[in-house]
């Protein structure tokens, strides 16, 4: 089934949204070229409670981090112009805008206050407001990009002998990748790795700070690996959702638990985000917005998982249930 991207008629808005995420890259490069002869070898990184600089970072390292994060966000934003990325485009742009805005603003702030201070001690002052404002930079591409309207999934015609046309001996299986989890998790892990490197090379920082940062980054990496790609399978045993990279079973629905199955269109907003979601009476594995297999369970609640071609999976699951006398 081909899903039509409703944002296609206003494609220019999506291009404009992606273009805004190249502006932080331009800002970093231009200011580096303009300020390179006026900057010292180190920039302030932390300030103590008395307002004095308590730690520094090499100027080149700050520039490389800002440029790398901003450039990565811009490249990913450009890649998200593909039609198949339309369902999650605006949400991804929020995260990319946050990363690019924060990274570039930290460079602009630290370099800017150092130049303004001259030979004096750099002071944060009003420059700190720039960083707070830049954290909301993702709102610009979010509102510029065309809102994606979920396509209506037509129900296939049904007849009394539909089940006889389904090969019950052939399992249905598909891989589903979450681009949102890959981008957000990968970005956080990359930023954390850079932070650990900086902490380890800074004599003023303790080993405990590096270890704590490493633990947090490790947990985020684990969650990312679990949910970035899953395999969804429907066979004679029921429905299963398994993490492809780590092999962890995220959900198992046996045939005797199934009341009915159908295809629907869902969004991450319905379930409060991506990954494994728990809401009142409903659970879901949300990999991205769009078509999903929804299963009504006998105990009265519901389970959903976003997949391509959910009608095929739903038809097979219903046929398997109908063909098994023990679950009628």
UniProtKB/TrEMBL annotation:
Keyword Transmembrane helix listed: yes
Residue stretches spanning the membrane: 15-36, 56-81, 93-115, 127-145, 175-200, 206-228
Keyword annotations: Membrane, Transmembrane, Transmembrane helix
Keyword check for Transferase: no
Name of protein: DUF1648 domain-containing protein
Source species taxonomy: Bacteria, Bacillati, Actinomycetota, Actinomycetes, Micrococcales
């Amino acid at each position: 089934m081909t899903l039509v991207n409703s944002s296609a008629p206003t494609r220019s808005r999506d291009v404009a949204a992606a273009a805004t995420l190249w502006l932080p890259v331009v800002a970093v490069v231009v200011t580096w070229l303009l300020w390179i002869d006026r900057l010292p070898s180190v920039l302030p990184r932390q300030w103590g409670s008395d307002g004095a600089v308590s730690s520094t970072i090499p100027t080149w390292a700050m520039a490389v981090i800002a440029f790398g994060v901003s450039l990565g966000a811009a490249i990913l934003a450009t890649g998200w112009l593909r039609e198949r990325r339309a369902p999650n485009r605006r949400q991804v742009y929020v995260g990319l805008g946050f990363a690019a805005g924060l990274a570039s603003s930290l460079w602009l702030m630290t370099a800017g206050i150092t130049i303004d201070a001259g030979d004096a001690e750099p002071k944060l002052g009003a420059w700190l407001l720039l960083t707070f404002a830049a954290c909301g930079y993702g709102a610009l591409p979010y509102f510029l990009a065309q809102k994606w309207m979920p396509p209506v999934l037509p129900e296939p015609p049904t007849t009394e002998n539909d089940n006889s046309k389904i090969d019950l001996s052939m399992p249905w299986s598909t891989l589903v990748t979450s681009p949102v989890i890959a981008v957000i998790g990968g970005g956080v892990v990359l930023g954390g790795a850079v932070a650990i490197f900086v902490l380890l090379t800074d004599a003023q920082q303790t080993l405990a700070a590096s270890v704590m940062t490493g633990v947090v980054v490790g947990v985020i990496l684990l969650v990312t690996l679990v949910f970035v790609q899953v395999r969804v399978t429907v066979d004679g045993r029921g429905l299963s959702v398994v993490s492809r990279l780590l092999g962890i079973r995220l959900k198992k629905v046996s045939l005797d638990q199934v009341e009915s199955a159908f295809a629907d269109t869902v969004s991450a907003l319905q379930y409060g985000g991506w990954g494994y979601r728990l809401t009142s009476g409903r659970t879901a594995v949300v990999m991205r917005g769009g078509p999903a297999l929804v299963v009504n369970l006998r105990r009265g609640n519901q389970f959903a998982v976003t997949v391509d071609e959910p009608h095929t999976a739903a038809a097979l699951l219903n046929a398997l249930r109908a063909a098994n006398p023990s679950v009628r």
